[in-house]
Specification:
single chain; mainly alpha; Arc Repressor Mutant, subunit A; about 0% strand; elongated
Length: about 325
C-alpha cells in the first residue's frame, strides 16, 4: 500500500468537479492499495462492477494504466448489463459549468439541430460519465450520427455503447472506425452488387477482413468480385475463404494477388499433360465397311470396246 498519494493541480481543478464521487474514491483507493476489483470494492463497500466501470472511466482519461488496475480482461462486463445513470437538474447544472461539458452541449445542439432538454443533456453527459468516452470522441460521434441522418438521442446512445464496447476511446480510433464504415463497408457491399446497409453478420465479416486481417479495401473488393463471378451471389462466407487463403499467403496488395494468380496458372500448366497427336487408324483395327469401302478404278475406254464386241456378236 502506498504511503503517499500525489494529485496534480490539473486533476483537482479539471476532474474533481465532474467525476462521480464513487469514481474518485475508486481511483484513490486503487492508487493506495493497487488491489484487485474485489479488494477495492470490499474496502469501499461497493460492487466489483462499480469498480470496473470506474477503472474504465479513468483509463479512458489516461489516469490509470493496466498494471495499476490489475483487472483481468474476462472480468470486464458488457456495458449493456448496467443501466445508464440519470441525473437530477441540480447535478446537471453543476457539471454544466465545466467548459468541456458546455462545449459538448453547444456542439450537440448545432449538429443535431435542436435545443437540448433535460433528458438530452442527461444522456449526453452519461456518454462521458457512464461510458467513459472523452469529449472529443463524443463530438466525432455526434458528427458521424448527424452525417448519416440520425439525430435521435436513442440512436446516439446506441452508437456510443457500441464504440465503448469496441474500445474506441481516442480520436484516432474514432476516425478510423468512421472511415471503415463510410468507405470500407460501402465499397465491399458495392462489390457484391448491394446498395444497402449491412446486417450484423455481414458487419462481423467485414470487420474481420479490415481490422483483424488488416487487408486493404481494394484486396477485399477483388475477393468479393470473384465471389460473385464464381457463385453468382453475394456470399460473405465464400469471400471469407478466399481472403483467409490470401492472408495465409501474406497478401498485402492487389499486386500480390496478381502474382498469386500467375504462380497458380504456371503450376497448372506444368501439371497438365502434353497434348496428344490425333490417333491414327491401326491396320488391325476393323474398318467400317461404308466409310472404308475401296472403289474400283474403272477404264471407260475398255468398257466401250467390250460393248462394241458384244453388239457385233448380235
Amino acid at each position: 500500500m502506498a504511503d503517499e498519494i500525489r494529485l496534480s493541480k490539473n486533476f483537482i481543478e479539471t476532474e474533481l468537479p465532474v467525476a462521480p464521487p464513487l469514481y474518485v474514491s475508486v481511483y484513490l483507493m486503487t492508487l493506495a492499495t493497487g488491489g484487485t476489483a474485489a479488494e477495492v470494492a470490499a474496502k469501499l463497500g461497493a460492487t466489483e462492477t462499480d469498480v470496473l466501470y470506474a477503472w474504465g472511466y479513468w483509463k479512458g482519461k489516461g489516469y490509470l494504466q493496466e498494471k495499476e488496475a490489475k483487472q483481468e480482461k474476462a472480468e470486464q462486463p458488457r456495458l449493456l448489463s448496467s443501466e445508464r445513470p440519470d441525473y437530477t437538474p441540480a447535478e446537471l447544472a453543476q457539471v454544466g459549468k465545466h467548459p468541456d461539458v458546455m462545449r459538448m452541449y453547444q456542439s450537440a445542439q448545432q449538429k443535431l439541430g435542436k435545443m437540448l432538454n433535460h433528458n438530452d443533456m442527461s444522456l449526453l453527459f452519461s456518454l462521458h460519465d457512464w461510458l467513459g468516452l472523452p469529449f472529443d470522441v463524443i463530438d466525432l460521434l455526434l458528427s458521424y450520427c448527424a452525417a448519416n441522418g440520425h439525430t435521435g438521442m436513442r440512436y446516439v446512445e446506441k452508437v456510443a455503447i457500441g464504440w465503448a464496447e469496441e474500445g474506441i476511446t481516442t480520436e484516432d480510433q474514432a476516425v478510423e472506425y468512421i472511415e471503415m464504415r463510410r468507405t470500407g463497408f460501402r465499397t465491399i457491399l458495392k462489390a457484391f452488387g448491394q446498395n444497402r446497409l449491412p446486417v450484423a453478420t455481414e458487419e462481423t465479416y467485414m470487420k474481420k477482413w479490415l481490422q483483424e486481417y488488416k487487408l486493404p479495401v481494394d484486396v477485399v473488393k477483388l475477393a468479393c468480385e470473384r465471389t460473385v463471378l464464381q457463385t453468382g451471389k453475394a456470399s460473405f462466407a465464400y469471400a471469407d475463404k478466399i481472403l483467409e487463403n490470401w492472408r495465409n499467403a501474406d497478401v498485402k496488395s492487389a499486386a500480390d494477388v496478381e502474382e498469386l494468380d500467375k504462380a497458380f496458372a504456371a503450376k497448372k500448366a506444368q501439371n497438365s499433360p502434353a497434348e496428344k497427336p490425333a490417333a491414327q487408324t491401326s491396320p488391325k483395327q476393323k474398318q467400317n465397311r461404308f466409310i472404308n469401302y475401296t472403289q474400283s478404278e474403272w477404264d471407260f475406254a475398255e468398257l466401250e470396246r467390250l460393248e462394241r464386241e458384244q453388239r457385233e456378236k448380235w
